[in-house]
Amino acid sequence: EADGGLIVSASHNHPDDNGIKFYHDHGGQFVPPFDHELAQCIAQVDRVERMSLDRATANGLIRTIQPEVHERYIAANLAISRFPGARNIPIVFTPLHGTADTTVGDVLRQAGFPIVTEPSQSVPDGTFPTVPFRAPNPEHASALQCAIDAASASGAGLVFGCDPDADRLGVAVHHNGTWVTLNGNEIAALVSHAALHNHTHPEPLVIKTEVTSSLVSRIAEAAGARVVDHLLVGFKYIGEGLFMLERKGRFGAIEGGVDCFAVGVEESHGVLVTPAVRDKDAAGGALVLAELAAQERKTNRTLIDVLHDLMIRHGAVHNRLSSLAMTGAAGRAQMDAAMASLRAHPPAKIGDQCVVRMEDRQNESGVFGPIHSPTDRASRNVLVFALDGGARLIVRPSGTEPRCKIYVETTADVGGDLILLRRRLMVEAKALANAFTHLVLDRIGINLPDWALEISDMVSIEDRLRWCNELIPELTTVVDTAPESAADWVARHSTKDARALLKPGIEALARTDRAVGTALLPYFS
């Protein structure tokens, strides 16, 4: 019953990229225009009074949250169990040095699952020492590798992982002898399918953001659920939907209370399955997925088999996220310039597909109506392109990271081999993403070779340009003229992590320029 909340966290970001999250009394984050009003209040602060922790505690200004609150949280998650009794599946879990062992870990243990916490990543540590690239984000498959290794050694078939503030859920599944790491859209589809199973409301509600896979909407509609699937990026908008249902009995065209809520999902590994919480939270999603996996294990099936069944039933979908890291004030100016250019002169084609419609979410005659604040305008800095081949492409500057994000979705009806069809959709999505990336960069006067697009998204555009235009030509000369010094040259100009991020680009270079790429590849292995 607090009036508000504040979290300080690196969340899923690098340890030096901290931020804050404000919550109001219903447990959700502020949405426009109220977030702007809050920012204005903060900007007016010119003096901060300080007091020691001991004195503040003695004066009653600081109180520790009592265990009963945590117990109610656990109970709220256990209450959404969808497959009672299905528990016999060993799970390895990693909190990535964060808080999630007290949320996902406690919920799964109290639900009766045999869970092992990956030992090297179980101790809270804000430097994330064992996480590759110190990027504790389950969107990156590398973040789950330690847990996957532990699962392989122990014979477990399921891996869960969370970012350090425990709201994003990562999943890896042992399927047909190999490990498959699920992306956020696949997790969203599976969580939605599980959460709708045996739901008590006659017309359950599924809420998702616009950039999240349309497979979620298809699953929901086939199950007789109502769907809100056009929301802006940010789980705060899903939380706001729950707030409106609770206080007003209506959210958009949806009438009812929070009891109708089944699941909220977003593509960036955010899930929510209980209205008792008003922001993305990994614990409930982990519970229903663990139950679903245990249920399928009875017939020697995995979550991958379930995902395939869903696509056979509702259509094949492939979602791809590409991003361009543009850092600092210069990067922000580049993103602004690119978005302005796309608005003023929309492309007629993206790759080999014609654009049949572009929708600008800042258009005040559109679905979101008038713009209410500068924060509203920033959140609505989104362009949606519908293509004649049935694909969809969305571009937006991230609100929490210095990067421009490009979302591509390709779809097809399943009339043959699903695996081959999914591979085709994957190729199409990659081609569209690369074509649009070149288009965006061209609008701001940047030219990158195709192979440089294969370099990890964690590498900024500035660093990619430097490697393409300066360092790779210089290294090529070193390898040709003084190969004995090439390894030292690479070590001076890059860290081990940097070389791992660059390696996919060098491999792509080897495919297009075999002589040069093959000569350079050993130095990035």
Could you please describe the fold and organization of this structure?
- By secondary structure, the protein is an alpha+beta fold.
- The chain contains 17 helices and 19 strands.
- It has helices at residues 34-43, 53-58, 67-78, 104-111, 145-154, 184-196, 214-222, 236-248, 282-297, 303-314, 328-344, 374-379, 418-443, 461-481, 486-493, 496-512, 514-520; strands at residues 4-9, 19-24, 91-94, 115-117, 158-162, 169-175, 178-181, 205-209, 226-231, 250-251, 254-255, 261-266, 270-272, 316-325, 349-350, 353-360, 383-387, 392-397, 403-412.
- The strands form five sheets. The chain has a six-stranded antiparallel sheet. The protein has a five-stranded mixed sheet with strand order 4-3-5-6-7, with helices on both faces. A four-stranded mixed sheet has the order 9-8-12-13, sandwiched between helices.
- Helix 3 packs across helix 4, helix 6 (184-196) crosses helix 9 (282-297) and helix 14 packs antiparallel against helix 15 (486-493).
- The termini are far apart.
What keywords describe this structure?
525 residues; alpha+beta; five-stranded mixed sheet; globular
Q: What ranges have pLDDT less than 50 throughout 5 or more consecutive residues?
A: none
Helix-and-strand structural type: alpha+beta
* Average pLDDT number: 95
Basic shape: globular
Could you tell me the radius of gyration in angstroms? 24 Å
Describe this structure in a few short sentences.
This protein has helices at residues 34-43, 53-58, 67-78, 104-111, 145-154, 184-196, 214-222, 236-248, 282-297, 303-314, 328-344, 374-379, 418-443, 461-481, 486-493, 496-512, 514-520; strands spanning 4-9, 19-24, 91-94, 115-117, 158-162, 169-175, 178-181, 205-209, 226-231, 250-251, 254-255, 261-266, 270-272, 316-325, 349-350, 353-360, 383-387, 392-397, 403-412. With 525 residues, the protein is of the alpha+beta class.
